[in-house]
Amino acid sequence: MAVEFQIIEEEGHRALDLPFSGPKTGVRHLFGLRGPRSVELLAKHFGVRETGILSVRQVHGDSIWVIGASGDTDGPDRGSVPSVQDRACDAVVTNRSGLAITVRTADCLPILIWDENKKVVAAVHAGWRGSLKVIASKTVLTMRNSFGCRSDDLRVGIGPAIGPCCYEVNGPVLGPLRKKFDYWKEVVRETEGDKGMLDLAGLNLRQLIASGVPSERITIAGACTFCHPERFYSYRRDGHSTGGMINGIMICNG
């Protein structure tokens, strides 16, 4: 469901807060806004050292990195956080406390997921390519397979992205969308020619629900990055010169 969000400011760092987690839950999160995005500021927000901030090299795919609580073969040793160049993927899942996992967006959809029972979190970057590859559903499946999470225990926050008011797509997007999803007309408003306005958040919402996540446990910011240049970066609006918002989630220590 779409909700009103709050803008928080901490020592020069502005962020957007959705009411799906908080200090009492043992999980902390943020959806970034336009403005400073240094690792130092992020570390202050999450209450960790700079080495506790994890970022990845996003490639608009469906690769998911699983990081266990201690030195897995698929994760760094405790206390060692790789740099952005070290891993190409578009989603991270972890049960490691004190590690803030992040994704960067500037029109694409940031999705943060957590399981309070199993103490597992995930950060997902979903553009149109990742959405066609159902990266949100695959992340839920990974949480279930890797950590025994139950879909109906998950809580999801969907942050700001380009909205259906501004996100015009054409044949290369609409063709695969029509073939893959029988509900495609629910997330596309067709316009002239082979074009349409895509509801990226709505598409991912349906994928999450199809994966067993109850709709009432999904919170959507409902803010369009293209419409609000004072708040958000937008690749579609500003081009290659734009910055990007950093979105993250962390299991708190203790």
Question: Topology, pairings included?
Answer:
Layout: E1 6-10, E2 13-17, E3 27-32, H1 39-46, E4 53-54, E5 64-67, E6 91-94, E7 100-105, E8 109-115, E9 120-126, H2 128-132, H3 135-147, E10 154-158, E11 168-169, H4 171-180, H5 184-187, E12 188-190, E13 196-198, H6 200-210, E14 218-220, H7 235-238, E15 245-251
Parallel strand pairs: 4-7, 5-6, 10-14
Antiparallel strand pairs: 1-2, 2-3, 3-15, 6-9, 7-15, 8-9, 8-10, 11-13, 12-13
- Mean pLDDT across all amino acids: 85
Which strand order do you get reading across the main beta sheet? 1-2-3-15-7-4
H and E order: EEEHEEEEEEHHEEHHEEHEHE
Radius of gyration, whole Å: 17 Å
Q: What is the general shape?
A: globular
Head-to-tail CA distance between termini: 31 Å
The biggest beta sheet is recorded as:
6 strands, mixed
Uncertain stretches: 1-6, 8-13, 71-79
Q: Structural class of the helix and strand makeup?
A: alpha+beta
The percent range for strand residues is 25-35%
List the total number of helices: 7
| Total strand segments | 15
Residue share in helices?
10-25%
Could you walk me through the main structural features you see in this protein, from its secondary elements to its overall organization?
The chain has 254 residues and is of the alpha+beta class. Helix content is 22%, strand content 27%. The chain is built from seven helices and 15 strands. It starts with 5 loop residues before the first strand and ends with a strand.
